[in-house]
Amino acid sequence: MASTAEDRTCGACGATLSAKDLDRALGVGTCHACGAVMALGDEAPARAPKAKAPRPSNAVIDERHGRLQVSWPMVPRAVGTAAALLAVACAAGLVLTLALPSLHARSPAFIGLVATFAAVAWVALTLALNDTIFRAEDDRLVITYGPLPRPGTTVPRAEVAQLYVEQTNPERFAVMAQLRDGGRVLLVDGLAHRDEALWLEQAVESRWNIVDRPVDAANEVWR
Fold it and tell me: Which of 102, 144, 162, 223 is the most buried (most CB within 10 A)?
């Protein structure tokens, strides 16, 4: 049986193809979202819906005030403890370096040691203290980190065609955004559990009324 427009998606961006996107006379389809051209038969077929992922137990979830905000430690507790100890060690090294009378304050060795200890201590502190804060608003996704400042990510809702989960290595998962222009944005990386990543994906898709469709990603996780 021939597929209908309703069970076809763009293999490039994952957008649902409408009947207007399909030229059966020429045997091609043109995605209205990203402009990709494909031969009919190359579209991504619809899959059975994902099972609903359980609510994460290690995250703080706030659904008040018309938004979804989820926060959790940037790294597992054991890694955070190790990072805190490293920060203390670097701070001690920095103090000792500043106290060394043999190093002139303007010498390259002095400047290099101070910069190294300070940089490593800052990175270690951000790992030890920071939370990842994932916020889905009506018009955008915002990913920030705190309390110590670190660059975050903002993606307008109008640019997002799909969200999906990608397995980055045997033990880590990432939440990705497939954009309407065919690009992709990493939203959250380093999640230890598949269900945590799938819950974030499903929570945003439900909030934004996105129909879950497969994307053209080799490591996509489809529960």
Answer: 162
